[in-house]
Every structure is written in C-alpha cells, then in structure tokens.
Amino acid sequence: MSESTLKTIAWPDSYGERAKPRMGFFTDTSVCIGCKACEVACKEWNRIPMSMQGFTGHSYDNTIDLGADTWRHVAFVEQRLPVDATEGGSLVQLAERAQAVDGGVQTYQEGEGIRWLMASDVCKHCTDAACLDVCPTGALFRTEFGTVVVQEDICNGCGYCVPACPFGVLDQREGDGRVWKCTLCYDRLKDDKEPACAQACPTNSIQFGELGELRERAEHRLARLQEAGQAKAQLYLADEDDGIHGAGAFFLLLDEPEVYGLPPDPVDTRRDLGSVWAAAGAAAAALGAGLLAAVFGGRR
Amino acid sequence: MGSNMAEQHPVGFQWVIEAKERGARVIHVDPRFTRTSAMADLHVPIRPGSDIAFLGGIVNYILEHDAWFREYVRHYTNAATIIEPAFEDSEDGGGFFSGWDPETRAYDISTWAYRGVEVKTAAGKSEQRADVSGEQAHGAHGPQLEGGRPPASDQSMEDPNCVLQILRRHFRRYTPQVVAELCGCSPEQLIAVAKALCENSGPERTSAVCYAVGWTHHTYGVQIIRTASIMQLLLGNIGRPGGGILALRGHANIQGSTDIPTLYNILPSYIPMPHPQAHPTLDTFVEQNGPKTGAWGSLRSYTVSLLKAWWGDAATAENDFCFGYLPRIDGDHSHYAMMLGALDGGLKGMFCVGQNPTVGSANSKLIRQALGKLEWLVVRDFQPTESAVFWQDSPEHESGEARAQDIQTEVFFLPAAAHTEKDGSFTNTQRLLQWHHKAVEPPDDCRSELHWIYHLGRVIRQKLAHSTDPRDRPILELTWDYPLQAPQEEPDAEHVLQEISGRGADGSFLPKYEELKDDGSTTCGSWLHCGIYADGVNQAARKKPHTEMNWVASEWAWAWPKNTRTLYNRCSADPAGRPWSERKKLVWWDEEQGQWTSVGDTPDFPPDKRPDYQPPSDATGMDAIAGDKPFVAHPDGAGWLYAMAGLVDGPLPTHYEPHESPARNVLYRQQENPTRQAFSRPENPYHPTDGEPGADVFPFALTTYRLTEHHTAGGMSRTVPYLAELQPEFFCEVSPQLAAERGLEHGGWATIVTARSAVEARVMVTARIKPLEVEGRTVHVVGAPYHWGGVGIVTGDAANELLPLVLDNNTHIAEYKAATCDIRPGRRPRGRARLELVEDYRRRAGVKM
Amino acid sequence: MPTNRRLIPPFARQLAGDRLGLGRAAQSVRSERLTARTRAADKVVQSICPYCAVGCGQKVYVKDEKVIQIEGDPDSPISRGRLCPKGSASERLVNSPTRETRVKYRRPGGTEWQSLSLEQATEMIADRVIRARAETWEEETEDGQPLKRTLGFHFLGGATLDTEENYLIKKFFTAAGAISIENQARI
C-alpha cells in the first residue's frame, strides 16, 4: 500500500521531516472476547472519570456508547441465526459447520444457532476528519502520527465538533464542558509506547501499528476468514474511496456495520461546506476573529 | 467444560485463540452460552450437574470404538491391573459400590483394592469414617505395593476383573441416547465431541481439557474431574505437550495456598495432618500414610525436614523431631463445618483474611448468623467488606431480624497491604511461582500478612515467654527469627522462601527434594518446593524475557517440583523412551548420554533411569518405579483409571443428581451421591427433590457464576470505579421461554426464591440461556452471577444467599453450581415481608425445618 | 526535540507549511512537550497481577513513592504484556479513593466503628488468641490419644496472599495447635 493513499490534509506535509509514520488501530472483532480490558486500560491511562450508567440490558454492555468518558467501547450483539452451511457462526469454519449440520449436530436442538458478536469501538481518526476542520480554536489537530487529537489546553468547549463527527464520537464532558475523546494515546506514542488499549488487549483483537502495514495485515486476515466461510466478514473504514477516505482506526467486522451500531456509509459531514479552502479560510480567520462561530453556527 | 475461560481467564485465553488460529478446534460444553462459547467452534449446552454423564458418554464412546491409545494405556495406566473379585460396581448396586454401610453412610473400601493388596486409608482404617478426614481419607497417596508392582495384572487387558474391563462395563450404559436424555443435549452433539477428541489424540496429536469451579462446585465434583482423567488417560493426553487437564484456578495464589496450605487437612506439600489414634508417633505416621514406593516413599524425609524447619534445634531424633507438637485432626474441620459449629456457640473467634464469606460462601445468612455467635472477628482487607460490617448492615438488619446493639461480636478491621506494597510469590494455575517485588511502602496502618502474622506471633510468644505449660512449648520453641526490614519492621520474604526451599547439613541451599534426609540433617519447609532457592538464587524471581527463550520458557519463574513445567512428562516418550512423534516431542531418553533429556523442561523422572529398568521386588522409593512408569507420585507409577483408594465415594465416577435437582436419576436407583455431606437444620433448609411432593414449588435449575468484570465476592472489584461501572447491578439470565412463562420483563426486575432466601435481580432475557429437554420435560435454567453485596461503589443482593450448604465429602466444597429455585417478576418485598415470602414458599413446598 | 522550535509561534508555523492550520500549526506547546507519564517514573518494578491465577506479569511505575501506572509486562511468557480489565484496573485498586488505611474497631454491641492503633490491635488480638486457645484446648481424646489442639478459632483466607505469608500462617497456627486454617480453595 503506497504511502500516498494514507495522506491527510495536514499530515505528513505540515510536519516536514518531523512527520512520523501514520499510526492507527486495526480492531479485529473476530477475536474479541468482550472482556473490556481496552475500556479499563484506556480509562486508567487517561485518567478518565467513572461514567456509571447502571444496568442497561444491552447484553453485557453497560457503557452504551463512545463519549467524553468512554474512549473505547465494547459493543455486544446477540444474534439468533439459523444454522446452515453457508452462514458463519462464531468463527465456525465452513467445513466444521457443514459437518455439524450433516451429522445432525446443531448449536441448538431446534436448529437455531446463536452468535454473540463483540467489538471494541474507538475514535476513527478519519483521513477526512470533519471535527478537525470545524474546530474554531485549533484545539483539534492532526498530530505528527496522522492521528486526530483534542488538545485539552486549547479546547474551550464550543462543541462545534460534536455534530460534525459522522460517528458520534465527540462529546463534551459534563461539568467540564470540553470535548474529550481517544488521542490514540498521543503521549504514549511520543514515548514509543503502544496505546494502552492495544497493549492490554488479551487476544490481540486491537492491533496498533503503522497504518499501511495494518491494512495489509487486515486484508490477509479477511481473506482467511472468508475462506473459512465467514461470508459477511468485511473491513470497515479501510477503503480510501469511502466517505471519509478511510480511517486511522479501522475494523474487521463479521457482519454489516449497522449490526454493530456503526454507520454503514459514513461521510465527511463537512462536504456540503464546499471546498477545503473554505475551512482553511475559516481557520485562518480564527486567528483573529469570532466570526467563525457565526458562520458555522449558521450552517448547523 | 466446567470453565468459562474467556471470561474468567481472558489473558490465558489468548493461547486458546492462538491455538485456534493454528487449526485447533475449541469445544465448549456448558449450561450457558458465554463469551467462551462465542469463540468456540462448537457449544453444547448441558443441564447443570450432568457432567459425569456427558464425560462418561465420551469414555464409553472411546472404549466402544476402540479409540484408546493402546500402548500408552497398557504401559502408563493401571488398565491391566486386576481388582479384587469381591468388588461390586455401582452398575450392579443401583448406584452403590460394594462396602456401603447405610448406617454410617460410608464405604468400607476393602473390596475396592487391587487383588492381593490390603487397602487402608491413612488413619489405618478401611472404612471412610467421619473421623478420617481430608488427606487421610484420600488414602494418603496410595497403597503399599511390593516392588511398586500390583500383585496381579493381565497385560492383554482381557481378564474380566482387570481395570479396563471393569471400566468398559461401568460406562456401557452411558450411551449417546441415555446421555443426551439426561444432559438435555442431542446424541449427535455428544458423538461430535467424542469424535473430535478421538481424532485429535494419539502419537501425533493431543487434546487438552480446561475446567474450573464449574466442576468442583458439586456434591460429586472430584468425580467429575476423575471422569475427565479417565478420558484423558485413555486418549494418552496426560504428560504430553498440548494435553492435560488444566484446573483454571480463580485467585492469584489459590494454587499456592493449596500447595503450602492454609487448609486444615494437610501440611505443606500435601503431607497429611496426623490422626490421634493412628499416628501416635512419627514411625506410625509414616507407616500408615506412605506407600513405600514412588515419590511418597520418602515421606519420612519430607516430614522430618519440615519439622526441622519449624522447630530447629529443638527437633531431635530422640524427641521424634517434635512430631508430637503437631495437632491432630479427627473429623471435618473445614470452613463450613466451623461455621455450623459456630451456630451452636462452639467457636470463639475467626480471622477473615482477604476473604468475604458473607458474599462468597453458600447460604450467606447462615454465615452471618455464625459470625454473630463469635466472641471476636478479625477482618483483614483493603476496605471493610460485607463480612466486616455484618453487625451493622445486612439483609437481616433490613428485615428487622438483627440490630447492631444485639450483636456481641467484637470486630477488628486491619487494613491490608496491596501486592505492590510487599515482596512475595504467587503460584499461578500452572504451579509457577512468580515473584512480585515491592514497589512502594504500604500507607498508614496497612501491612502485609507477613508483617501481621510475624508480629502477632512475636507478641504471643512474648506473652507466653514464661509459661511452663507444655502446650506452649511448640510456640516457644518454634523457629521465628526473620530479618526485619525498615521502616515498618517487615519480615524479609526471601528469608521465608529460603526456609521453604531447604538447606543441607552445611547450611547450603538444596537443589531438589531427592536430597532431603530423614535423619534431621536437612531442613525444608515444603518438599515440593525444594530447590526454589537453589544456588542461593530466588528462582521464583527469574524474569528472563520470553523472547529470549523457547516455548517452555523455563527461565521465567519456577514451577514445583524441580522447575517441571509439564507434570509426568515422561509420558511424552513411548515406553522405549523415544518421542511418540516429532510433533509432540518433549522429553526423551538419550541413550548416548544415558539420561532423560528435553527441549527445555525438567524431566519429571529420575534423570538416569533407563526406560527398560525393572525394579527388584524389595525396591523402595523411586527405585521401585519401573522405567516405563511415568506417574512417579503413585506407588505403582501408573496413571489411575481406577482409584482403589483416595476417594470417599467410589473408585470410579458414577452419575448422581445434584442434591436439589429438577430431574430423577435415570441411570441409578440412588438419586444423589450417597456420601455427600448434608446438614439438615433450620438455618439450612433443603428443597424436596424431583418426584417428592413440593418439588414443583422450586421447578427451575439455579446456577451461580462470575463475570469478567468482577472478582469473586467483589471486594477487589465493586470497590474499583472502572470495574464497578462495567457490571453495575446484580442481574439474572433467563431464556425467552422462561421469561414468557413467568412474565419476566427484559430490563425489569425479578425475585429469585429458594427456601434459604429471596433476592432481587435485574432481568436479562437472552437466547444464550436455553431451555433443555431432559427426560421428556423442559428444564429451565436461571443463571445468577454472585458478585454483589451491600457495600462498595455498586451494591446488590448476593446470589449465594440462595444456596444451601451441601458438600462433596472428598473436598468439603459446596454445590454452588446446581440447585433449584423459583423466579417471579418484580422486586422482592422489603422488611419482614421478605421473610414471609420465603416462609410461604417453604410452607407450600413442605420444607422440613 | 529541538528546543528552538517551541519558540516559533503557531501562526508563523502555519505560514511555514501548514496553511490550513490543522496540523503542526495547531499543535500547542503542551502537546509538543507531551510525554508518557511513565517516563517520569522514578522506578519500574516487576510484579504479578493480584486477581486470578493466570499470573500475568505487571510493570508498576512509581513516582515520589506513589504508584502512577500499572500495565502488562511484555517480558512475561504467560501474558506477553496483556492484561484483562481487572488487571488493567490494578492501579485503581491500590490507589482506590475508598481504600481504608486505618485500623477500625467495633466493641461488642457497638453501633459505630472506633479507631485503634495497630499496636494496640495486635496486643488485643494476641490476648484473644491466647484466651480462646486456653479455653478450648483439647489435650487428648477420651481414650488418651494426643490431640494437642484448639478448634476455638478459625482462619479463612490465603488465596489472595503470598506463598510466604501462607507458610508463616500455617507454621504459626499449627504450632499453636490451631486446626481450622482454611481458604478459598474450599469455596
């Protein structure tokens, strides 16, 4: 995969020789065991406040969604599905499944199987990151690693980035007002340390690395799963032709994105704002004017 | 089976995922579809408590299809051994083996013996009486066998009285149809699992079994594990890489606290506690306990070295090395026995150290009542647990049954040091002792348990210093000098480890237990750990990165015995000492060097014993173990398909129903394990079992368990914000069918009722819980994780309030995994009304109080 | 990192190559100087996770005598640097805001906790052990065989303690004739 396909507006150019390879996450949900180590390791490292939501009834998910106080979130999807030879079960290989059906062995007696999907979600660190473009204060920026980070010392809590995110990741913290989200452990990256979630992940479902290398790895993994009969297995946000030109954090899913609560066809919400230059102009104006707020506010 | 590994041991599960990526098939047999099932190739739901039947079905399949590993079985197991002709199998006795005495409810095991061998339990008795307990009842490691050989055997394994043939007959009725009927699965599911195991076993391949408390928490828990042992021995899966039966243990040092026990029935390294009548002297103790052959043939050396470690110069040959200082046991003195004793006022005080029995033990109310009868209670923990505040806050306070001012128990709460605040070792689930280094000093009054017990001992010794009472001699003569470290006078943990490891006459550190002597010239606090400080190095603290070693990783930490990573690994070579296959090579005989060698593991066998070695008939100890007998801890060096001694409930596993069961035992006239320990008293009422009047008042199977996000009784997770929020409330899991039947609403509340208590839980309606067709009827399962209690960031009712106290008599472990209950929509009543609800149920079910 | 870079004001950086002001031009001084807090640790100590029996390796980062971070130890052949949610929460466990660090005492019939010094508590507990032992001592059986024991008090715990701690507990209590020393293995 060529480096150019990973390029973003501000990375690597603005960093010149100080640019680092673009880093990202490949979350392979096919081996996620739903342990939530990522959620906890993230909170530990980033000192995120507790976010007690109570019992939700959403399977084993009691944190519900990504937000200011949940930067990694594990979704649990319980599916009932018929047992047949074409449908992948919980990573059941095609041959295995066929044998089971032939032999009269089914996951359950009445011929109905169950699949429990688990997937750890995170900020996508989009190639075309609308949040970045709409931020009037320069709090959101593209780092030397090509990641998208909110700077807590700059963010003034205006909240413009919140509706801009096609994934609903950005969120203001109650009582604080500022926007908080995954930084891909910017501080750890600067110290050559893996992000906390990826380091903790027991089954290596969360893989961290250079984005180009991760995408190659993901292609191989996908091919293997498809060969094994996982017909609906797919990569999500690994395609530079999608609505956000791919993401720094992409996923291998075993079913359609909407099954996991992910938008099937996310688009850069800034598209209808016109050219990138409009945003550039706005950003320039931000240096000296409060006009920007009115412009973007009017657009919402 | 019996384990939910992905949820309870997530980081260990990385190896299962990795094996799967390399082509291994993962099968999960469990009543519930869990996060482990989600990752498995096949999930087979079975009724809680039907494990012996399922495994027995596999054993039957292996034998019927001649799928057993002939060479392995013939040489390495006792399949060829001939049993006493008077032995009568449970197949012929309606669920009873020969020797049953209905009066004492115990077996006389003399007919269970190998032909020509006199069988005795350790206390010199052939009956399993109530006064013969724990390790004593376990037959203390086998019978006396002259020359390490059973007197009668048939190498063709065709003699009708040989173990293999007895085994065939014993499991013959465990057909796929019968098993399916009983377990609530399909015959095809059983066959698929059996077939998969057979195909994946043999010289080129091995299969492993992982279990946990899903097996031990039954009134026949040990026999479930025994069935798995039989299956794995028949398939040749023990002592070989990728094989084995892995007990996945739940706490950082639960394995270590069994090896170097805080258990009433054993001394360090599984040496039995002495019995008053049977063991008046060291000689009789050794005589009655130890087979003379195999590793236990050196029991005298192990015991004397332990006594020397404890009483130092005071222990001499003349005074039997202070053997008389050891207290004697003559009954069940385990946790539950003590709690029952406390109810009757027989217990003065209690220490709860990092344990929270009012949430973690079965029948929580009974436990609280017991605590209320104590004169004093000491709780050591990070935060005051439910057990520490039982006098102040409990369901009985809510119902008006208890008031703080009426509870006369004096309570001390002592804050504990965390693992980061002390040096020491944890023994992990693979027997690996791993050292953790102190990072910071504990804050304020927090102290390690090493500090606590050392200084408590020091103060008691001071207070008794001038005593002339002979009973105080053992305390005063005890070796109790440990270097103290500033600033808190913390005893040096490494010094304690050195004492455990052992020293020779010249004070040097011993490398292995074979060097222990029975003349008092060596000291060793735990013979299995001998060598953990070999060469003056803390071997447990070795931290060579795994990237610099092969897969055995033998230079990371230390495993007992002798840094052996795979026990009985002589099994990984064929009888002639050659690897069974290149693929499964681990230990083999190197003819040139004249010794056993390995890819990196310590051979668990005398290093220079030739594979063709045959012991003379007067041989003892390790010399009596033939070159093709890998199970060196057994007097015959064989893996026991049939256990002539060691178990109170039979030499072979038999399917029984749980004490409270929604089904009849279709295989035997006898419904439950006849040797189970049941305690009928008002504080511990039992339900009628299936077929008895009133049983339908509690129609559902109840099973309790844990979740990834919490830790046991919650003391280390409900108090931690990031964990508390992940599973904030007590919930129960029910099938959509049961929800419809009982009007339970997803996300709403339900009240689960037993004769012990009524608790409320949020409702999770899920297809992951499956109604099972058992004997032509639908059996519904109610699942209840047990982590919650009254204190912490998140609170809730404790599931263990529901359970009765009824125990496996081999281990005195309660039946947490299978009971019966009723479930109804809505929250439970408050105050007295809660009690009345339970009383109403008891009345309707005709529960005897 | 060249220090003179920090002195360049963001707008100048923007002119220098980040015309949109989305990359380096927007990077604050704080962001530029950011490092992992573990870098500031005074020491890193190798430890083992205190929860289950897998025995995952942990690295404990200490600064100013406080634990500032606990994460997986990549050297461990058991865990290869990984931790489950409980292991990952270990720092919160040891630094829990609700952790009780003082001895507490409740007198018989009392309705509140009282405070007590550690030394005083040890003295009192020693007295109670000695008394319970004396009151419940069993020297021998009815037929004159040795018992030399007390069943007057019960110990429960050990699965969360260190091997060395269990060893001393078993050693001392056995010497005291105390039989019922038990732990979670039974539960």
Map the helices and strands.
The complex is a heterotrimer of chains A (300), B (849) and C (187).
Chain A: E1 23-28, H1 37-46, E2 72-82, H2 94-102, E3 112-122, H3 130-134, E4 140-142, E5 148-150, H4 161-164, H5 186-190, H6 196-200, E6 206-210, H7 211-227, E7 234-236, E8 249-253, H8 276-286, H9 291-299
Parallel strand pairs in A: 1-8
Antiparallel strand pairs in A: 1-6, 2-3, 4-5, 7-8
Chain B: H1 5-8, H2 13-21, E1 27-29, H3 35-39, E2 42-44, H4 51-64, H5 70-76, E3 100-101, E4 106-107, H6 163-171, H7 176-183, H8 187-199, E5 209-211, H9 213-216, H10 221-234, E6 245-247, H11 256-259, E7 266-267, E8 271-272, H12 282-289, H13 299-311, H14 335-343, E9 349-353, H15 357-360, H16 364-372, E10 376-381, H17 395-399, E11 410-415, E12 424-427, E13 432-436, H18 449-463, H19 473-476, E14 484-485, E15 490-491, H20 493-501, E16 558-559, E17 587-590, E18 595-598, E19 677-678, E20 700-705, H21 721-724, E21 731-734, H22 736-742, E22 749-753, E23 758-765, E24 772-774, E25 777-779, E26 781-785, E27 806-808, E28 813-814, E29 819-825, H23 832-845
Parallel strand pairs in B: 1-2, 5-6, 9-10, 10-11, 20-26, 21-23
Antiparallel strand pairs in B: 3-4, 7-8, 12-13, 13-16, 14-15, 17-18, 19-27, 20-29, 22-23, 22-29, 24-25, 27-28
Helix pairs in contact in B: 4-7, 4-8, 4-10, 7-8, 14-16
Chain C: H1 10-17, H2 29-33, E1 43-48, E2 57-63, E3 66-72, H3 85-88, H4 90-94, E4 104-106, E5 114-115, H5 118-136, E6 137-140, E7 146-150, E8 153-157, H6 163-175, E9 181-182
Parallel strand pairs in C: 8-9
Antiparallel strand pairs in C: 1-2, 2-3, 4-5, 6-7
Oligomer: heterotrimer
Rg over CA atoms of chain C: 28 Å
What strand order characterises the main sheet of chain A?
Answer: 6-1-8-7
The number of distinct β-strands of chain C equals 9
Helical run tally of chain C: 6
Structural class of chain A: alpha+beta
Number of domains of chain C: 3
- Order of strands in the sheet with most strands of chain C: 1-2-3
- From the alpha carbons, calculate the radius of gyration of chain A and give it in angstroms: 20 Å
Domain unit count of chain A: 1
Share of helical residues of chain A: 25-40%
Order of helices and strands of chain A: EHEHEHEEHHHEHEEHH
The gross shape of chain A turns out to be globular
Strand content of chain C: 15-25%
Mind describing the biggest β-sheet of chain C?
A: 3 strands, antiparallel
Helices and strands of chain C, in order, run as HHEEEHHEEHEEEHE
